[in-house]
């Protein structure tokens, strides 16, 4: 029988999650063994399909493991997916509503969807269901603050994109103070694309640059998507900065940036946003991606704790599968399953009382998953970010900085120091 202490402790690790769920299930006297429908609105086609596939993979693996542990109070999980294609507010909201109407899903476990203006939160609120997503947007926090009682069931499973800004500047400042890279000047160039995610990050870097000792030499917004980088590269070559920060995030476009950059390279570090974490970046860019730095505020850590997950993921989905993306929905589904079990079971649409119980458990629990530590910020119901938002690594998700050092292998984690497995190396284009 599960001890009261385990329930009250509140800190749950991924390795212990199956045991915890099994213990809860062992004391349950559930008569209902019908499957629990879990809905997910994902871009399974279109320009973000590579991510959509991995998000579904993460859900499938988590559901398999949760069901092997006894499900939620004896009830197995079933995954239902609606394709959000090119995304946008109308398509995403309709996909989510279909999942609720057709399957009576008590939870919508999404990856990311762009161009929604966070309409997902209204769908969840109107139907009284839990919604967890990985849009990585500060607009989630801002919308939550307008009416916490209405959006009580809406959770962002990672820190908002704003924290990429100060995190990137802190990384560059720390790197410049070491002996691996001597910055030739204090200039940084910022290249966002025309979408909310990229622009928020770029603006945060621009607005905080002077606090970290940098000056902006170029701030140029490019179309979304784009693979024509010639005009931007010409400006960079005229006034070479110490670092080029590209906050556009599509892997195929970023790979083309590097191919075109190396036609006439300059001695600038190249930092890119998120896209280099996906296999397509290496597959398209090849040797041209060696030396690129990127970061993510959510992604599977390359540590011993996540090793069983990484091995299981690639055994199930193939050696080139991107567990760094699938890990997001994987952790999210485990967190919700445990919260639902603690709350006495999942809810169903329009059962506000039970849905509030599940939401309260999600707010209460601190979960150590394969991406690091999830803890909900009560002011916005997003995850705290370490080290720029909280100084305690046990209470925030690490902002990871990785470098492609050999395109034939996985990238190397070079910061933050407590999690790093490798050291920064000077890019091969430096002369």
Automatic annotation (TrEMBL):
InterPro entries in the record: BCAA_transport, Leu-bd, Peripla_BP_I, TAT_signal
Native species: Metarhizobium album
Coiled coil residues, start to end: none
A single GO BP: amino acid transport
Entry keywords, A to Z: Amino-acid transport, Signal, Transport
Origin organism lineage: Bacteria, Pseudomonadati, Pseudomonadota, Alphaproteobacteria, Hyphomicrobiales
Protein name: Amino acid ABC transporter substrate-binding protein
Domain Leucine-binding protein: 35-385
Family: Belongs to the leucine-binding protein family.
Cleaved signal peptide residues: 1-30
């Amino acid at each position: 029988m599960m001890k009261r202490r385990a329930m009250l402790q509140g800190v749950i690790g991924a390795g212990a999650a199956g045991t915890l769920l099994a213990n809860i299930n062992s004391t349950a006297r559930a008569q209902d063994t019908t499957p629990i429908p879990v809905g997910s609105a994902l871009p399974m086609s279109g320009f973000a399909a590579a991510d959509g596939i991995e998000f579904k993979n993460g859900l499938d693996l988590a559901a398999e493991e949760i069901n092997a542990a006894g499900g939620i109070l004896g009830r197995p999980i079933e995954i239902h997916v609606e394709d959000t294609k090119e995304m946008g507010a109308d398509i995403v909201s309709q996909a989510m509503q279909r999942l609720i109407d057709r399957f009576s899903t008590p939870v919508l476990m999404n990856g990311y969807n762009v161009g929604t203006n966070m309409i997902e939160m209204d769908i969840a609120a109107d139907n009284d269901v839990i919604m967890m997503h990985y849009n990585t947007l500060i607009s989630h926090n801002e919308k939550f603050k307008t009416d916490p009682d209405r959006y009580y069931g809406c959770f962002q499973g990672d820190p908002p994109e704003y924290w990429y800004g100060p995190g990137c500047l802190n990384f560059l400042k720390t790197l410049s103070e070491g002996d691996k890279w001597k910055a030739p000047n204090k200039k940084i160039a910022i290249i966002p694309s025309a979408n909310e995610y990229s622009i928020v990050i770029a603006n945060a870097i621009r607005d905080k640059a002077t606090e970290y000792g940098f000056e902006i030499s170029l701030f140029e917004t490019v179309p979304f998507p784009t693979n024509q980088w010639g005009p931007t590269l010409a400006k960079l070559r005229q006034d070479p900065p110490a670092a080029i920060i590209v906050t556009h995030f599509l892997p195929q476009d970023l790979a083309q940036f590097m191919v075109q950059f190396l036609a006439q390279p300059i001695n600038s570090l190249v930092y890119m946003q998120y896209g280099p974490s996906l296999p397509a970046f290496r597959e398209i860019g090849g040797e041209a991606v060696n030396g690129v730095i990127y970061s993510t505020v959510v992604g599977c850590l390359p540590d011993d704790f996540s090793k069983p997950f990484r091995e299981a993921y690639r055994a199930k989905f193939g050696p080139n599968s991107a567990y760094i993306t699938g890990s997001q929905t994987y952790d999210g589904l485990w967190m919700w399953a445990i919260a639902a079990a603690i709350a006495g079971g999942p809810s169903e649409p329009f059962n506000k009382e039970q849905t509030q119980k599940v939401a309260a458990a999600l707010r209460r629990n601190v979960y150590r998953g394969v991406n690091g530590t999830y803890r909900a910020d009560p002011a916005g119901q997003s995850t705290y970010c370490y080290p720029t938002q909280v100084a305690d690594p046990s209470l925030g998700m690490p902002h990871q900085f990785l470098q492609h050092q050999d395109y034939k292998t996985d990238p190397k984690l070079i910061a933050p120091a407590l999690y790093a497995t490798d050291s920064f190396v000077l890019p091969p284009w430096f002369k």
